[in-house]
Amino acid sequence: DTAGARRATKSLLFLGLSAGAVAGAGSFACAAFGGGTFSGDSAVIEVVHRSAPVLMFAVAALVFAYPVDGAMLATKNFRVLIALSIFGLVAQLPALQLITRSFSGTRQPALPLKLLMMTMFVRLLTLSLFSLARFWADLQVKPATDGEERQSGKLESSGFILHGESCIHGRGVFTTKELSKGQLIESCPAIVMDAGAAEAMFSYRWGLKDDPSSKDFYLPLGQLPTVPREVRAAFKQTVGETIRSDELAAVLKTCGVDEASVEFLLQQAKDFSENEVVSVSGFCDSLRMSATRTLSLGKAVAQVNSVEAWNLHHDDLKQLASMLSGMCKASTVAEALQEVHSLLSLGHDLWVYAYMRKLYDRSPDLYFATIAAEPAKLLPAVYTPTVGEACQKFGKMPLYRRGCYLCISDRGHFKEVLREYAEAELEKDAKGNYLCDCIVFSDGGRILGLGDLGAWGMGIPIGKLDLYTVCAGFDPSRTIPLILDAGCSGPEGNTDRLVIRDSTLYTGMKQARVTHKSAAGTVVNTAYYGEGNVIEEFMKAATELFGERCLLQFEDFNSNDAFPLLAEYRNKYLTYNDDIQGTAAVALAGLLGSMRLRDAKCDLRATLLKQTFLFHGAGSANIGLMRLLNEEAGVPLSSIFVTNSRGLIWRSADGTEGSFRNEEQKAFAQVGEPTFDSKDLATLVEHVKPTCVVGAVGVTPNCFKKPMVEALLRFSERPVIFALSNPKTQAEITANDAYEWSQGKVIFGSGTWFAPVELNGKTFAPGQVNNVYIFPGMSFGAVCCQAASIPERLFLAAAEAVANSLGDEEMALDMVVPKRDRIQEVSLNVATAVVLEAQALGLAARNLGADWQTVQRALEAMRWTPKP
């Protein structure tokens, strides 16, 4: 602890006091019982004995008058101070002779007085030895190096620790002369000061006398009340949160105060600053100041050295951060829910999203406990549909520490970037290995149905992993949300034509994506292919650092990249693509649920084989579902029809011609060009006669018109219509239109949330066919049983588990998937089914049991639960 200098000088002071006390005891004894005079060597002993405490007082006063830090003591004054300490200790020894001599005088003291004097001597000698030992421990400080950083004055740190007149941070120790006032005020979002530093600033040694910003750095604490020992950990966490906060914060570390009342300090702070001011002794070890991050930040953020500095650098972010701090004051789940309900009453969930991100930054445990308390209300706010708009405005909200950015400009150094993030954010096991169960990574190339949002797409991996925790029980401290920054398209690359890459608030690399045409004729990201490509380097680096059983989940890659990348790596690493496989599985779960709504006791797989399917849109979601239906459920290709922007996808008999755009579409193309207008959906329905229609276009909202719905009713009493595009503004049809146009006969499911619909005295509650029913349980099951890979068979098992979780109440409301407030139960069912299937296929390295109940109990015991 570099604050040991103060404790060391107090140890010296105590040595002087104890020496003086023993000297006084010896002198009193000799005067009272030994005749009261000294001669010869006894006189020398008396002189030495009386001068020792005076000398020790002088040394202690000198050290207090000239503040030094632990590093200076260790490097410059070590031998001198050790010698003085030993001298103070040895100076007490003659007292034993003096006391012994007094016992042999003419007047013997009573036995109680003898015992008292001997006890005093032994006690003082023991305490002196203890003080010397503590003094030695306090001086064990490594002197700082890194002269180049001193010369440049470029400090890449999220904060400074100030001791006396020196500054300690992750790069070394600096004197105040090497730090300008501007560096301290403008570049330092968090200051930790000891008493000497506060005193130096208060006496204007840094030229802050007339600077109003000095109030942000100093708060006279006075006498601080103490609190129970069990609260100490909470104080340390509060200090850590303040250090990582998005506001300028002064954290005063006072020596000699074991514990301090946070409530008292915050009350006092109101008189000085709106910023949080916290004080607690002995917390420096928990602050990991050496683990600063620069490589793993977004490229624009790295230029200002820290997340905190980024927020301070932009006035809008600074003000918004201050507002969110004012709103987010909860310390219990009840208080958090009260604050959330107030925001929900405003009618826009984006404010709730921003609030919840701030709450996570303050306390992950409280964040997850709050969501778990009301998942039906809060899941739509922290993930879909709100997360879509949140990503579009991600740079306009305060930035927080969570999330790793891996830029293609760092190619060849990905392992170092991941290690930096892990060192700062992850825990280690007893062997020193980083603890990471899974990484959700995206390049932001196709965020929901909104297009290319680049680094602003970080909201998706973060939200995804939040649901891993809330729904399945992943430990959030063992997960990494990651953006692979390969550039960002211009306004033409996203649906709302937003200027993202050139925004001053864009956090990533301001560069267009480098693309080329693949052999299949599709436009793909060049960096993802060929020898030494960034996907391979990332996956290799991740498994080397975190182990082969670390799950690596693809998320929101452009479809042209998503399919070939999944095909390349699905059998090399523990990985899957949720947009392809997760969406397919939950859509299949919804279709199986629809079969149960028609006949609750039907054989699900047999009934599925009798259906005819029309898929509108040939992106990753529909392609994945068609593959699952055909390859795993056994639905013949003759029962599967799919469209793209050219209408019904077809191919010639030899496959050389057709309307397909890639090999994935070609695999499901009908043989022969249609003789009707297949772009008109009503006409297409008349010819195909489907019983189930699944829309996942993403860019054509409200494309399912009334004539199409009416045509469906001519071929099925209860046709199925799924509108899977996100967000709600991109849905192919609304729930209200689907029910009204069909008079409640349509079985409806959607990718986004729709309110219940009242029609003809019946309530219809649209089931949200969202991946959240699949990916948390899928990932948890695969990680817990240490699966070697995740084949399609596991997704079929997961889909059946979701459909079989439907209850009578949900079926009465025409819901194709269970209610959202049962998500933890459903996720556990999915995880159980996945583990049993993986074990049956021989993919599980860890066997969790032979039957459903045994596996489920094992999984329940492995779930992480928040402790707010």
Automatic annotation (TrEMBL):
Residues 580-839 form the Malic enzyme NAD-binding domain. The keyword Transmembrane helix applies. SUPFAM superfamilies: Aminoacid dehydrogenase-like, N-terminal domain, NAD(P)-binding Rossmann-fold domains. One of its GO terms (biological process) is malate metabolic process. GO terms for cellular component: mitochondrion. InterPro entries: Aminoacid_DH-like_N_sf, Malic_N_dom, Malic_N_dom_sf, Malic_NAD-bd, Malic_OxRdtase, NAD(P)-bd_dom_sf, SET_dom_sf. The chain crosses the membrane at residues 12-35, 47-68, 80-99. It comes from Symbiodinium necroappetens. Keywords: Membrane, Transmembrane, Transmembrane helix. Gene3D superfamilies: Malic enzyme, N-terminal domain (3.40.50.10380), NAD(P)-binding Rossmann-like Domain (3.40.50.720), SET domain (2.170.270.10). GO terms for molecular function: malate dehydrogenase (decarboxylating) (NADP+) activity; NAD binding. PANTHER family: MALIC ENZYME-RELATED (PTHR23406:SF90). Belongs to the malic enzymes family. This is ME6 protein. Residues 360-570 form the Malic enzyme N-terminal domain. It comes from the Eukaryota.
